[in-house]
Design a protein that fits this description.
- The chain contains 6 helices and no strands.
- The chain is mostly helical.
- Among the domains are: about 15-70, no CATH class; about 70-100.
- Helix 5 runs antiparallel to helix 6.
- The relative contact order is 0.04.
């Protein structure tokens, strides 16, 4: 009778050796994880410190951490400003223009609707082109 050894895979750690041996056995997997983790920390978490500038009375000479904390004072000033209405209108108008430019491209990239048997593919294409590129009279 042949004796067979129990072959433990690379990812398996013996209960006697514990967690440290598991990490040693799989060091290459953790090395591959290192670069994405460093990327996330540098480009996602570090910039979040700059968000504090909205809540501080920032001074270039005092720096980020020595500038006094003002809380929501800047937001209150902005929302009560006489220019707030104009800025909000401009922002929403520009967003509408952007949507109006992207919507026709989205519609034209869709396949013809199968639920409308009276429209052929050519009719659907010409209908969407006409309806999305027609300019309003006003």
């Amino acid at each position: 009778m042949l004796k067979t050894k129990s072959v433990r895979g690379k990812t398996g750690a013996s209960p006697k050796r514990g967690l440290a041996q598991y990490f040693v056995n799989n060091w290459d997997l953790y090395a591959m994880l290192l670069l994405p983790i460093v990327y996330i920390v540098i480009f996602k978490y570090v910039p979040m410190a700059g968000v504090q500038m909205a809540f501080r009375d920032y001074s270039v000479f005092k720096g980020m951490w020595d500038s006094p904390w003002v809380g929501l004072e800047h937001f209150k000033t902005f929302f009560s400003s006489s220019e707030f209405g104009k800025l909000l209108t401009n922002t929403l108008t520009l967003r509408g223009c952007l949507t109006a430019r992207l919507l026709p491209r989205l519609l034209l990239s869709l396949p013809p609707v199968k639920t409308l048997p009276q429209l052929s593919a050519g009719a659907w294409s010409s209908t969407t082109k006409t309806s999305t590129t027609a300019r309003p009279l006003a």
